[in-house]
Amino acid sequence: MCHRGMRLAKTFALQAPDLVPGLMRELCLKYKFRRPDTCEGLWERLGPELIGIFSELNLDGSDGYYTCAYAFPGSCPLPVHHPKPLTFPKPKPANAQQPPPSGETIQVLHFSDWHVDPLYQRGTEAKCSHNICCRDYGRFNDPGPIQKPASKWGESKCDTPIALGVSALEAIQKFVPQAAFGIFTGDIVSHDAWMITQKYVEDEETRSYELFKQYLQEIKLYVALGNHDSYPSDQAPGKERPNSYITHKWLYDHVADIWEKNNWITSVEAEYAKSHNAMFMTRPMPGLKLITLNTDLYYVRNFFTMLDTEQDDPSGLFHDLILELQDSEDRGERVWIMGHMAPVAKSLPRSSILFQRIVARYSPHVIAGLFFGHFHLDKFIVMHDPDLPQGEDSAVNVVYQGPSITPNDRMNPGIRWYDVDAKTFSILNTHTAIADIMTHGVDWELNDQDPEWIHEYSAKALYSDPTVPQGSSANPGPLDPLSPQFWYSAVERMKHDRHLFKQYLEFQSKSSSEAKPCPKDSACEHETLCHMQASTVVEAEACIEEAILQAQEDGKGKKKANKRAPFGRTRTGREIVPQDYDVQRGVTENGLAAAARIGIRRLERSKDEF
How far is Cα 263 from Cα 212, in angstroms, rounded to an integer? Predict the structure, then answer.
């Protein structure tokens, strides 16, 4: 049914494009996908993109299948894309090892998910039915008296009030005033995707970057775009289409010019970012290359990823990444990779698998760290070599997901910094500081006090194993790096040490009293443990299904497994492989002309039905 609907949508896009936004709005309203005002706003903004996307969907290939699987979860099993074997410029050196510690240290700042809301208004409803609250929505306000008035310092279902954002920047000056440099892993703009305009996005970015510069002064900040930093939200074409109908050049020009003006990147790097979807490379310090990715190019909510689904790397993102990593290997320099969303969750399977292979090829001797945000959580993910059985020896790198400034999603605001080896750029320790606005925010407001930012924890102190000698991978010394084996050991201990796991959960939400509970043996516990060691979305899905089913067999499972069909399986258990679609439908090299004739006849029938 979904696939037939996609054919009708393509017919509309080709023959009556002006009707597409209204049609999508009416469907949204009829089936109550969103609030009425949200339906109106979203489809008004997404309409031009959808017209172009629908008109180019290859419905005789895998595009329509992907679109149904991700846009309408449950309508089709999620496909597995088996990328072709990667061919690297050179084989991995024998006995590639992380360089030994130098004994010298620096500090590096990391903050993420700013999501400042210039329309935040104290006293408005903090528990509303909109996607974000703490605003006056006028005639779209919820009826009845206000349940909880929005406080000055933020609420759990609201984006960042300007006062809290400034407080976070002041906390940076308190904890890491001498940072060698800083990284910001994306999401400047608020979550009101149905209300924003291009000008709103531009203004939010301009003013926020100006504020960062004002407080960080001479500390250089390197920035990745988030999915909310585009217009419309989440959308980014990976390449110019043959009949170009949409472009994000305005966005890439806009942000690159600001980054250059703030003296964060050079003019050459800015020009590269403008022509490469905001991806750029820079060298913050001698011996270190920082590679910034635009992660919208593999995000499942970016509808442009539903085009060219039979290709492994349609945007060329991973091709460019490999070239840069090989260049650094040849030079003998270390690399940090940063972006908004790590391709180990909420990404297309093909991108997730490619990223894992690339990280395994260039770790641990080249890639010294992987830094992302997006989930608002303070967490980490151990990356494994896919060619080895998963275990301590297969752990090759670690994804550091930075905590958010926004309290949205029941989080306290947090910032992070790293103790870093000044020569090898390996991570020696991570620190997180928070302001507990969930517990004390109202009192601070009543007493006219500023938020109190405190050092919450350090990873080395929390996760080191005291039962083994210091200097081992599970209990590193003060100047030893936090190796992938250190993090692997921490996860393995959490599986049996409930106290340590509860501490991880507490710090994941930045000690929020409003964090969602995660009971023992629940689906939440299984998913959390799986995500800490799943290098791809496919591995995460398989791990979660297996863990929950095992718990149910043991009589411990308190929740059923996710009803959504797992990756790549139909209800009969047959594997769904996108490359098979063309063969199944007769679209081979010799059958393209016949398929085209068939498609034309189908289009004519659709016209008659329309």
Answer: 12
> Could you tell me if 45 and 55 are in contact, meaning their C-beta atoms sit under 8 angstroms apart?
no
The DSSP line for 407-476 is: -TTT---EEEEEEEETTT--EEEEEEEEE-HHHHHHHHHHTT----EEEEEEHHHHH--TTS-TTBTTB-
Please write the tens of the pLDDT for every residue from 367-399. Answer: 999 999 999 999 999 999 999 999 999 999 999
Is the C-alpha dihedral spanning 477, 483, 485, 487 positive or negative?
A: positive
Q: Where are the alpha helices (DSSP H) in 31-129?
A: 36-56, 63-71
Token pair belonging to 397: 């790198």
Asked if 118 and 162 count as a contact pair (C-beta separation under 8 A), the reply is yes
Specify the DSSP class assigned to residue 219.
Answer: S
Strand 379-384 versus strand 395-401 pairing type: antiparallel
Question: Cβ(123)–Cβ(149) under 8 Å?
Answer: yes
Which pLDDT value is given to residue 567? Answer: 53
Which contacts of 461-468 are long-range, i.e. CB under 8 A and separated by 24 or more positions?
462/503, 462/507, 463/487, 463/489, 463/490, 463/500, 465/489, 465/490, 465/493
Q: What are all long-range contacts of 255-262, with beta carbons under 8 Å and residues at least 24 apart?
A: 255/205, 255/209, 255/223, 255/225, 255/229, 256/280, 258/205, 258/206, 258/209, 259/209, 259/223, 262/209, 262/212, 262/213, 262/221
d(CA 484, CA 533): 11
Q: What is the distance between the alpha carbons of residues 242 and 265, in angstroms, rounded to a whole number?
A: 32
Cβ atoms of 98 and 424 closer than 8 Å = yes
Residue 270 is predicted with a pLDDT of: 98
| Cβ atoms of 544 and 563 closer than 8 Å | no
Which CATH entry fits the domain spanning 105-516: 3.30.200.20, 3.90.1440.10, 3.60.21.10, 3.10.20.600?
3.60.21.10
Element (H, E) at 26: helix 20-30
As a residue count, the chain comes to: 610
Q: Are 194 and 42 in contact (CB under 8 A)?
A: yes
The 3-state DSSP class for residue 384 equals strand
Residue positions forming the annotated binding site for Zn(2+): 113, 115, 187, 227, 340, 374, 376
Residue 287: both structure tokens together: 């011996």
For CA atoms 209, 212, 217, 220, the dihedral sign is: negative
Rg for the chain (alpha carbons), in Å?
A: 24
CB half-sphere exposure, 257, CA atoms < 13 A: 9
Q: What's the confidence (pLDDT) of residue 271? A: 97
pTM: 0.91
Feature table: binding site: 113, 115, 187, 227, 340, 374, 376
- The full 3-state SS of 537-581, as one line of letters, equals HHHHHHHHHHHHHHHHHCCCCCCCCCCCCCCCECCCCCECCHHHH
Residues of the chain with pLDDT under 50: 559-564, 570-572, 581-610
Half-sphere CA count of 92, side-chain side, radius 13 A: 17
Other residues' Cβ atoms within 10 Å of the Cβ of residue 443? 12
Going from N- to C-terminal start, the domains of the chain cover 2-84+577-609, 105-516
Residue (of 566, 497, 560, 569) closest to 529 by Cα position: 497
β 288-292/367-372 pair status? unpaired
